[in-house]
Design brief:
Blueprint lengths: L1 H14 L20 E3 L16 E7 L6 E7 L7 E11 L1 H7 L9 E2 L4 E8 L5 H6 L5 E4 L20 H10 L9 E2 L6 E4 L8 E5 L3 E3 L6 H4 L5 H12 L8 E4 L3 H12 L5 E5 L2 H10 L3 E4 L5 H8 L5 E6 L4 H9 L1 E9 L13 H6 L3 E4 L5 H13 L5 H4 E6 L3 H9 L6 E5 L2
Length: about 425
């Protein structure tokens, strides 16, 4: 404890030094959507020992369908109740891609990335002693993309996934909960905004309530997906669907989140687990995640096939993990009387899903939205599932990229070239 506090004081001392501002050229010519241009600058350490660098790099989204660029930032600084994390890995998620394609409006310029692992290197001033004791400097950690404030009416009831501050500040304005960003460009001093913690960067600031300790037995790279893909799947299966042993489950869309749903369904003891997708290679991979049946919806009607598999009844739980009106309808029509249709896929802003009102009413169909898990309660559970091997992180992560390849990673995601989940290594 004392050594951790001593190290934190050293880090805080050295981080107060500032390097002179440098002009940072940025590639302005854009040819290939979602590619990346990389600046020639790199972070420079100041002082010695355990000192932090004066600057860091982050991947910036500027405007729809333009490439990310890697830019230099002043070292971000945490405030009370926040931790500064040296980022080790960041997952490649469709939520970021929706923002980059302009399908979901978000404040720009912003640093994307919201599925991270890393090392705690500093606590904000006036952070309480219990937080410092729980997350000492040097801790290996994983961060959840929904970062609860811990104080609002929802957080006080344990509903971290509905945190008022997260939606009012981070999702609405791209800031943390004092209404300010922690990111400022090194060349101009102007602000950049934060999609969650802005995790596709060498360092990021995260509210301590959104962070859990990662045991040494779990690798940084694969564990990054715990903060979104697995976190989202767990929220859907545990809280929205409340899957019970013996339930039949259909998952429509078997990307990073959908494939995590399959693993969680298996862990919860579901019986028939039906994976639905349009690509045979994804469906083949789905079997390793726990799918007992697969349906290629490009070749056969998924509703009819699900009814056939379940003896004409439909499934207890259907999960939509794509965010498309067509799959929304498939999801609601695939459940049995009294069944639950759980929607977790984000769609283009303004998209609407249709549902048969009379069937909804007469047959007691439940349509439930689920954005993610509850960080303080669920993230430690997910870490334990991974640590015991019940959730296989190695199977879930199919591809890795370097930090400089981040633009290519999202381009590959956009083109459907990633099976499962990809992770960008920033180590």
């Amino acid at each position: 404890m004392a050594s951790a506090m001593f190290r934190r004081n050293i880090i805080t001392h050295y981080s107060k030094f500032a390097s002179s501002l440098s002009s940072l050229p940025r590639h302005s010519s854009i040819y290939n959507p979602l590619s990346m241009s990389v600046s020639s600058f790199h972070s420079e350490s100041v002082g010695g020992g355990g000192g932090l660098p004066s600057s860091m790099r982050g991947a910036v989204y500027w405007e729809p369908n333009k490439p990310l660029t890697i830019e230099e930032f002043h070292m971000p600084r945490p405030k009370a109740g926040e931790v500064l994390i040296k980022t080790k890995a960041c997952g490649v998620c469709h939520s970021d891609l929706h923002v980059m394609k302009g399908e979901i409006p978000f404040t720009s310029p912003c640093v994307v990335g919201h599925e991270i692992t890393g090392e705690v290197v500093e606590h904000g001033a006036l952070t309480d002693s219990k937080t410092i004791e729980r997350l000492p400097v040097g801790s290996r950690v994983v961060g959840a993309f929904i970062m609860p404030c811990g104080n609002c009416s929802y957080c006080s009831k344990g509903h971290d996934d509905l945190c008022e501050a997260f939606f009012a500040y981070n999702r609405a304005k791209g800031t943390l909960y004092d209404g300010e960003t922690r990111l400022f460009f090194r060349n101009s001093g102007k602000p950049a905004y934060m999609y969650s913690m802005g995790g596709l960067a060498e360092y990021c600031v995260v509210p301590a309530n959104g962070v859990s300790v990662l045991p040494d037995s779990l690798p940084y790279t694969e564990s990054a997906i715990l903060g979104c893909a697995v976190f989202t799947a767990y929220g859907a299966m545990a809280h929205a669907a409340q899957v019970r042993p013996g339930d039949s489950v259909a998952v429509i869309g078997t990307g990073g989140v959908g494939s995590s749903c399959l693993q969680i369904a298996r862990a919860f003891g579901a019986s028939d687990i039906i994976a639905v997708d349009v690509r045979d290679e994804k469906l083949q991979k789905a079997k390793t995640f726990g799918a007992t049946h697969t349906v290629n919806s490009a070749k056969e009607d998924p509703i009819e096939k699900i009814l056939e598999i379940t003896g004409g009844k439909g499934v207890d739980v259907a999960v939509e993990a794509l965010g498309k009106p067509q799959t929304f309808a498939q999801c609601t029509q695939s459940v049995k009387d009294g069944g639950k249709a759980v929607m977790i896929g984000l769609a283009q802003a303004g998209s609407l899903g249709e549902v048969d009102i009379n069937r909804l009413v007469r047959r007691k169909i439940q349509v439930i939205g689920s954005y993610g898990g509850r960080a303080r309660q669920d993230l430690p559970k997910l870490i334990r599932l991974a640590e015991t091997g019940i959730f296989n992180l190695g199977h879930a992560v199919s591809r890795t990229y370097t930090f400089e390849e981040a633009g290519k990673a999202f381009q590959d995601l956009n083109e459907g070239k990633i099976v499962g989940r990809a992770v960008i290594e920033i180590i």
